[in-house]
């Protein structure tokens, strides 16, 4: 079911209205400043559109995991960066219960940012009373926080049931289009690339993708658990020995769709990268661990990716944080860019995966900003923050 979007509201009707906009400004801080403003930039098109139409914009977000008010997790620390990205002054509202007057004083096109919603226990409790406090800050509701949509909190769920219209912002709309429609009715061949640290967190994603994809290419530490399941030794590699049976049943279900790495780059330890070498997957030395996919696998995966018309990728192929073990991950990013040039829809989801494709975003169709939410959505779980929005 398509959700009603900001685009569906008549632009004239926005003039002078207070837009209560849930964004995801849960950004990393370093020495008191925003270290990565991707999430703020991601919300900018929605804010700009609303300002251009004469709306007064009231932004809501959570920030970290405080237990009650916590000065280190105040959103006032990010006000200057929000002002820089949005190119306009931002008024800070320290207490939503006392904020109505401030929202009414905002000029047309003005912007305010409310304090960290998680300072109030009603937020995570999805409390209707707290949702009413939030709802009083706007005349309509826009949800642009896809990354928070898998949680039923007052600022994502209860408020959307109280304040109408309740519509999807542009970022939310894009996430739903590319993680939803593009992968539900994919242009074929549809290739999924899965990696990362653990198979356990991704079993449901694999199960959900299997019937839809033409191929699943597996890398990362996740591949090691599949290696165990087919009887290969994995030495000191990161592996989930208690998931061997799950891996076996996935292999049985997937048949020829599941493609494992031909070989790996191994080393005695991460620190001893100079001693790294490529070995075939059935020859992992007992005194080494897998830290990346090897060149043969990179070429194999690349050939499959560039043939595809839809590519979805979650999970790095190796320990990409520690070069030179980023080579496999980088090769997948480059292959996706190449597939895109040939007309494929290319979608990346997952927190570490998004970090791994930093610098490639412009050449990919969509890089999801929602880590956990993206995976839950792919598993087919309803996201409370999305469900609460009006249907189109
Ligand atoms: P995402 O956040 O995109 O869903 P994950 O959290 O599942 O991805 O996995 C990312 C982590 O997986 C990274 O920290 C990376 O170092 C780790 N990883 C990938 N391959 C390996 C490997 N062979 N050995 C150890 N860690 C790995
Ligand atoms: Mg992760």
Brief digest:
The protein is an alpha/beta fold and 392 residues long.
Walk me through the structure.
The protein is an alpha/beta fold and 392 residues long. It folds into two domains: 6-173, Rossmann fold; 186-378, Phosphoglycerate kinase, N-terminal domain (Rossmann fold), CATH 3.40.50. It is built from 15 helices and 17 strands. The chain has helices at residues 38-52, 79-86, 100-105, 121-124, 128-135, 154-162, 170-184, 203-209, 220-229, 244-254, 295-307, 327-341, 351-356, 371-378, 384-387, and strands at residues 18-22, 29-30, 33-34, 56-60, 90-93, 111-114, 140-143, 166-168, 190-194, 215-218, 258-259, 263-267, 277-280, 289-293, 310-314, 345-348, 366-367. The strands form four sheets. A six-stranded parallel sheet has the order 5-6-4-1-7-8, sandwiched between helices. The protein has a six-stranded parallel sheet with strand order 11-10-9-15-16-17, with helices on both faces. A three-stranded antiparallel sheet has the order 13-12-14. Strand 5 (90-93), helix 3 (100-105) and strand 6 (111-114) form a beta-alpha-beta unit. Helix 5 (128-135) crosses helix 6. The chain is elongated, with a radius of gyration of 23 Å. The chain starts with 17 loop residues before the first strand and ends in a 5-residue tail after the last helix. The structure holds adenosine-5'-diphosphate and magnesium ion. Magnesium ion binds at residues 351-352. The site of magnesium ion has 2 residues, from helix 13.
